[in-house]
């Protein structure tokens, strides 16, 4: 008798617990808005695609994604479906939904690795990483990812328009990485950690010598070596600076520093050296600088020429 009562109580408790969990589940779902999707309605593929492109032109990124996904759902084996994957990625990119855009690009590459448009998928991934680069005083993980992805585009498709744009962005990324090394080196120098600072400045000179930060890095090496009393090293770096950047203000500063110490360099600063080198490749992360998917011609405010429509 007692066992039977316990069994009934246990059964009621289980039912109650299930009811409570179900109620909580419904409440949680109700509190989290779902991403809007189109109700299924069979429509011509051209209409779906052109409507998606129209929403893209208007800056309605999520609506554009819905229409391009509908193309894939209703016409999964068509040429339009293949193109819609890249257009979905492009819409996600325009909406700053970089993780989704990278996912779309990876999906295209996985499904159509040999397709000519795969070049754009690799490019799309690269510009997504590129636009996530932060200032030199913060972590540069995205910068390294961007550099690797941009180099991948150049190596895979060296003669494409995407490679041409990637090369320009690689220069900007290298400038960013050089700026990071220089900023850390300056901090070490101010903190009295001269050897650590020298390591950072040498990295700029050795690995990023074509960037706008090289003249300052060479000057900082002169400054650091003078601090340590290593005059020959200071003279050598000053000579490199004078030979390559005789009209740069950083060389004018290095010349004065060495001259005041009785180590007059052989090369006189040029008169144009009243200003420091201002050739700085600033990161251009504007959406307008990115190339559109293949077959889509960009116009002011949107796209045109969607498969001849």
From TrEMBL:
All copies of domain Outer membrane lipoprotein BamD-like, residue ranges: 44-237
Membrane topology summary: Lipid-anchor
InterPro entries the record matches: BamD (IPR017689), BamD-like (IPR039565), TPR-like_helical_dom_sf (IPR011990), TPR_rpt (IPR019734)
Keywords for this protein: Cell outer membrane, Lipoprotein, Membrane, Palmitate, Signal, TPR repeat
Subcellular location(s) of the protein: Cell outer membrane
Signal peptide: 1-30
Main location (coarse class): membrane
Gene3D superfamilies: Tetratricopeptide repeat domain
Region (Disordered), start-end ranges: 288-309
GO cellular component terms, semicolon-separated: Bam protein complex
Any single biological process term in GO: protein insertion into membrane
Assembly description: Part of the Bam complex.
Assigned protein family: Belongs to the BamD family.
Described purpose of this protein according to its UniProt entry: Part of the outer membrane protein assembly complex, which is involved in assembly and insertion of beta-barrel proteins into the outer membrane.
Name under which the protein is recorded: Outer membrane protein assembly factor BamD
Organism phylogeny: Bacteria, Pseudomonadati, Pseudomonadota, Alphaproteobacteria, Caulobacterales
